């Protein structure tokens, strides 16, 4: 007779589990998040078992009806989770047996919690990926629209955070979009490897029952059964891949956040974020702080932490399943929650960004941002680029001394440095002339930005 409090594996035990150990080893507090997926997997498993004759049709129907009722109990918040029953799997199975009797005990035929939990996480993961992809697409399309609206807006482009050359704001926003487009691809790629069925691997070696894993895979919408039973129960690459995707995404969102924070400062004054995305200070009445981008920037840390945590969790595990794996869920769930929150905040906020075009323009006019244009002008007139560089360098030094931008100098002033300079120089020294001249694929010219936005929209639609 079993002395264990845990009926499902107590047979060989001669004393009950220590109360602390029971709590310490339990995962139900967090893995109940996969309850729906656990039930979905069990229904498919029972359906397959009946198909191959291991369960009768009546047994299958009793199991499916019982599980469907349990799913409703859980959704209604009426299900009583028990830590003594360790995890989501045994809580649901125990409830099923309480409801339908001995037939409930047949559900676990040809299955182990090891392939069961691996299946649950993959089902959860697939759904999570689809939700993230949807939110990412919403952010991307908001970004594309904003870029189109800002195709003609001129701002300084930076290297080393020093004014470099004028660019269009739309072009800058489409640079952000490129980062997200790559993240999106990575996410969908990770889905392919997540969408493989572990069930049938049982504890580690497979099962003696005449199971049909192709049928189970098909019932659950998996592309195929996992190839190797040992690998099937111990592989968590897909969780790491998702967290790696999330780390790159958060790194990108953090870079964007950093720019938003800079741009809303009095010193830059490039954009306004509507009040609803900001908060004030309890002491300084004038303050309006860009909390949303700051928080997103900060959230990157926890997601990177989860990536390192999961890699470390897996790195020393011998095949096949080990209890260590129970530690895979919290980082994964938190990564999902964090990503969804950050994407939602960004998708809501990005379309509401208001550019301060005059102020951006003024900033682009300062810092001699058209110096390269002047050098290119000289090259077109036959000067060697290195000589042109030197001539323009001298003009800039003069400008710094006189507090004059290149475009504010008279022709005579410019001609001090090269008599090749003519009236037509002023066309290239304007900001509009400078951006319009970079008129090739990938360049900052407004027409190129509009074309790139259209391509981005088409690519997004084609996903
Ligand atoms: N709660 C466990 C986990 O998350 C389920 C699998 C337990 N399997 C086992 N043989 N202890 O990994």
TrEMBL record:
GO molecular function (one): argininosuccinate lyase activity
One GO process term, biological-process aspect: L-arginine biosynthetic process via ornithine
KW Amino-acid biosynthesis (keyword) present: yes
Any one GO CC term of the record: cytosol
SUPFAM superfamilies per record: L-aspartase-like
Major localization listed first in the record, in broad terms: cytoplasm
Signal sequence range: none
Enzyme class: lyase
Documented EC number(s): 4.3.2.1
CDD domains: Argininosuccinate_lyase
Pathway of action: Amino-acid biosynthesis; L-arginine biosynthesis; L-arginine from L-ornithine and carbamoyl phosphate: step 3/3
Highest taxon of source: Bacteria
Keywords: Amino-acid biosynthesis, Arginine biosynthesis, Cytoplasm, Lyase
Fumarate lyase N-terminal domain segment(s): 11-305
Reactions mediated catalytically: 2-(N(omega)-L-arginino)succinate = fumarate + L-arginine
Subcellular location: Cytoplasm
Family note: Belongs to the lyase 1 family. Argininosuccinate lyase subfamily.
PANTHER family: ARGININOSUCCINATE LYASE (PTHR43814)
Protein name as annotated: Argininosuccinate lyase
Lineage: Bacteria, Pseudomonadati, Pseudomonadota, Gammaproteobacteria, Oceanospirillales
Gene this protein is translated from: argH
């Amino acid at each position: 007779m079993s002395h264990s409090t845990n009926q499902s594996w107590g047979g060989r035990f001669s004393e009950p589990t220590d109360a602390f150990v029971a709590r310490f080893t339990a995962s139900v507090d967090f893995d109940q998040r996969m309850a729906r997926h656990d039930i979905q997997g069990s229904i498919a498993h029972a359906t397959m078992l009946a198909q191959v004759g291991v369960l009768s049709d009546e047994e299958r129907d009793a199991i499916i009806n019982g599980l469907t009722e349990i799913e409703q109990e859980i959704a209604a918040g009426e299900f009583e989770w028990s830590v003594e029953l360790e995890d989501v799997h045994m809580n649901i199975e125990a409830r099923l047996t309480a409801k339908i009797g001995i037939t409930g005990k047949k559900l676990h035929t040809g299955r182990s919690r090891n392939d069961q939990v691996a299946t649950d996480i993959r089902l959860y993961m697939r759904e999570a990926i689809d939700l993230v992809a949807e939110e990412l697409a919403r952010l991307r399309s908001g970004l594309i629209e904003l870029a189109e609206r800002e195709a003609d807006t001129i701002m300084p482009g930076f290297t080393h955070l020093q004014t470099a050359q004028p660019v269009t704001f739309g072009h800058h926003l489409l640079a952000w979009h490129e980062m997200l487009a790559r993240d999106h691809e990575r996410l969908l790629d990770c889905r392919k490897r997540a969408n493989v069925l572990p069930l049938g691997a049982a504890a580690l070696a497979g099962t003696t029952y005449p199971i049909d894993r192709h049928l189970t895979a098909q019932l659950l919408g998996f592309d195929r059964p996992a190839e190797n039973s040992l690998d099937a129960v111990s592989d968590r690459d897909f969780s790491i891949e998702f967290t790696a995707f999330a780390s790159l995404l958060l790194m990108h969102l953090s870079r964007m956040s950093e720019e938003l924070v800079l741009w809303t400062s009095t010193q830059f004054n490039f954009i306004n974020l509507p009040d609803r995305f900001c908060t004030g200070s309890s002491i300084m009445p004038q303050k309006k702080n860009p909390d949303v981008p700051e928080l997103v920037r900060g959230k990157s840390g926890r997601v990177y932490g989860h990536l390192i945590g999961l890699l470390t969790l897996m790195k020393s595990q011998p095949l096949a399943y080990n209890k260590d794996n129970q530690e895979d869920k919290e980082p994964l769930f938190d990564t999902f929650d964090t990503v969804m929150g950050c994407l939602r905040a960004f998708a809501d906020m990005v379309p509401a960004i208001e550019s301060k075009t005059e102020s951006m323009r003024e900033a682009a006019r300062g810092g001699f941002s058209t110096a390269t244009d002047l050098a290119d002008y000289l090259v077109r007139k036959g000067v060697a680029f290195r000589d042109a560089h030197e001539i323009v360098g001298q003009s800039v030094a003069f400008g710094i001394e006189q507090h004059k931008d290149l475009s504010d100098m008279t022709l005579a002033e410019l001609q001090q440095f090269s008599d090749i300079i003519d009236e037509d120089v002023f066309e290239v020294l304007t900001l509009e002339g400078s951006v319009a001249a970079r008129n090739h694929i990938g360049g900052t010219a407004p027409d190129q930005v509009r074309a790139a936005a259209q391509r981005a929209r088409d690519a997004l639609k084609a996903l």
